[in-house]
Design goal:
It contains 21 helices and 28 strands.
Length: about 650
């Protein structure tokens, strides 16, 4: 393996910060919108903020090697907290801010965090709730003072007060901080990020400075990122993608990271910032497309006709123009007109007018959704990665972007396919270990550094591009021996604006069936336009007209699936619309919105049985978790519908 060697002057984040504070001294490093106003910090100011916090944490007793939990939404203060922890010789551990207290308790106990830095009162309350289970917690630092006046501050401090203490004692504390920074090397632990726990308890992925900085360096060079670029930070800070984009690549290139005012204002803040570099999981792009389609349904007849006409033009020539391929003069003219009337205004509304490079990853994106954005002239590409890889395993080079592959190996990454079709990789970004879990480490990474991804795929012989079929454990066979890959069908169905989530079943069975979650926004909008009253998600999900619409989508997808030579047997014969949305609080999905298939199969075994025993409806009772953590149950009679299938092509048999 060709190991990446980092410049000793740039092999830790405190060193990168020191460089940027000089090289990009007056260039914006972080922005945040608060009370409707954008605030900005230069690289020089960012260094001062981080150093003050680091010295304050040392004054509070933070020791080298300790874990510091960081909880909250995307805010400069919390990104600075992670680098400040590194400056103290400690290890930051970001957690999902929407996790319930019990989920937080597991991570806090596992990493034995003594210091916790949180955003606000809500997160303080969660930490206090779990302190009996997690006796290690000694200090809580909070950013937002609102609501905190009457709390016991014996072991609690405001973020700015900690900084003030650091500044006041800088003559005493700065030498200690600098000495700790000087001990850090490329092999020092940079961050610990927990896996989403799709198949079990989350594991702490230990990533070194070498892992994160080498991945940030090579990926930035791959897409020519520089200090002139900008990103919007809105993804969960506990997710490796956010750490790479908002700290890794940001510190390597010197570009600016902007933080939205709140999740609710994220879309309008995206338009105001107009980032040049953007990343989002498929669900985000699916949601945006749903919003576009809802707005078009409410538009005038003329606007709908114009949209349909110019989108047909865009699908025909947009991707070719984006890739610099030849397009005839008439089609170019039509596309230019479409850009004036449709594509340009739409990109501006979405906040994508200035995007030079966009990525999606996390799970497979539906080809129709992917091609929709590229047809608008948005340079959206796919990458394939993992937390254990410091994100990057493969990427799509400009001019070689396709919906059905995830590109070629990223710079410095080796990829091989095992005999059983599982994808393996190794690189300088490969994680050090799973924290306190040598068995899982040995089961995932071999002595030569090869990591098992758990995904099944193959390289195309002509292009060298990697195609991911599905999770290796999810790929199976139908009873007749034909291949079963549920994601292939699920992603096709999620293209439709009224479908939010799909879970397909069929391994070792005679045919495929599906659970479907409707998109409440899209279907609710349809109901309002048609004067259809409904009191709940459950009532709307069971409406006959909703079933009729979903059935038409399923049958349309079946026609498309039948054309695939390998997966033509994955057509859906029967389906139902679930009476509740799959929810992370109920354990049915991870915090990164991945379906926990095994749990769903177990929890809804009665509904699956109904799909395969010919029943037309099933009465069921389902346990749910309310926002305040209380448990309850909902009862429903779920309808089951048949869907027409089509004959597979002869060569697909």
């Amino acid at each position: 393996m060709n190991a990446t060697v980092l410049d000793a002057e740039l092999d830790t984040f405190p060193k990168l910060l020191a460089r940027n504070a000089v090289k990009f001294a007056d260039t914006p490093a972080y922005r945040e919108k608060e009370f409707g106003i954008w605030q900005s910090w230069t690289w020089s100011e960012t260094r001062d903020e981080i150093d003050a916090l680091a010295m304050g944490l040392i004054a509070l007793g933070l020791e080298e090697g300790e874990h510091v939990a960081v909880i909250g939404r995307n805010r400069p203060y919390l990104y600075w907290a992670m680098v400040a922890a590194q400056s103290c010789g400690a290890v930051p551990v970001p957690l999902y801010n929407d996790a319930v207290a019990d989920e937080m308790a597991y991570v806090l106990e596992n990493c034995k965090a003594r210091f916790v830095i949180v955003e606000d009162q809500e997160q303080v309350d969660k930490v206090l709730e779990v302190q009996e289970k997690v006796p290690f917690i000694e200090q809580i630092v909070y950013v937002d003072k609102r609501g905190m006046r009457k709390y016991d501050h014996t072991h609690m401090n405001a973020y700015k007060d900690v900084q003030a203490e650091g500044r006041a004692g800088h003559e005493r504390l700065e030498p200690i901080m600098r000495a700790r920074q000087a001990k850090l090397t490329a092999d020092s632990t940079c961050v610990m990020l927990y896996t989403s726990g799709t198949t079990g308890k989350p594991k702490g992925v230990v990533l070194s400075n070498l892992n994160i900085i080498s991945a940030s360096k090579s990926s930035a060079e791959f897409d020519n990122l520089s200090e002139n670029d900008s990103v919007l930070a809105y993804l969960p800070m506990a997710w490796v993608g956010d750490f790479i984009f908002s700290i890794g690549q940001c510190f390597w290139t010197g570009f600016c990271v902007a933080c939205p005012e709140s999740p609710e204002t994220m879309q309008s803040d995206l338009r105001e910032i107009g980032p040049t570099y953007f990343f989002a999981p498929p669900r985000f792009f699916e949601g945006m497309l749903t919003t576009v389609m809802i707005r078009m349904e409410d538009a005038s007849k003329l606007k709908r006709k114009m949209f349909a006409y110019f989108m047909d033009v865009a699908k025909k020539v947009g991707p070719a123009l984006l890739d610099g391929k030849p397009v005839n003069g008439m089609d170019r003219l039509k596309y230019m007109l479409g850009n004036v009337f449709i594509y340009g205004p739409l990109k501006n509304t979405l906040g994508f007018s200035r995007v030079r490079v966009g990525y999606t990853a996390g799970e497979a994106i539906g080809p129709e959704i992917f091609e929709f954005y590229r047809s608008l002239g948005i340079n959206l590409k796919q990458l394939y990665g993992q937390t254990e890889a410091s994100v990057f395993i493969t990427q799509q080079p400009d001019g070689e972007v396709r919906a059905d592959t995830v590109g070629v190996p990223s710079p410095g990454v080796e990829v091989r396919i095992a005999d059983n079709g599982e994808v393996f990789y190794r690189s300088s970004g490969t994680f050090v270990e799973y924290y306190n879990n040598p068995e899982s480490t040995a089961g995932t990474k071999d002595p030569e550094g090869w990591v098992a991804t758990g995904d099944a795929g193959f390289f195309e012989p002509d292009t060298g591009h990697l195609r991911i079929i599905d999770r290796a454990k999810d790929v199976g066979k139908l009873a007749d021996g034909s291949m079963f890959a549920p994601k292939f069908v699920e992603n096709k169905l999620k293209f439709y604006s009224d479908i939010l989530e799909v879970v397909v079943f069929g391994s070792d069975r005679d045919y495929c069936t599906a659970f479907i979650n409707i998109d409440l926004n899209a279907v609710g909008n349809w109901a309002e336009r048609n004067n259809i009253a409904y009191a709940s998600y459950q009532e709307l999900a069971g409406h006959p007209e909703v079933y009729k619409s979903i059935k038409s989508h399923v049958e349309e997808v079946n026609k498309s699936v039948a054309e695939d030579p390998m997966l033509g047997g994955c057509q859906i014969h029967r389906f139902l619309v679930l009476h509740k949305e799959l929810d992370a609080d109920d354990g049915e999905m991870t915090r990164t919105r991945k379906v926990r298939r095994a749990l769903v199969e177990e929890k809804y075994a009665d509904l699956i049985e109904g799909l395969y025993n010919g029943a037309s409806e099933v009465a069921t009772v389902t346990e749910v978790t309310y926002e305040d953590g209380r448990k309850g149950s909902i009862s429903a009679t779920v309808q089951i519908s048949d869907a027409a299938t089509v004959a597979r092509k002869a060569n697909a048999a």
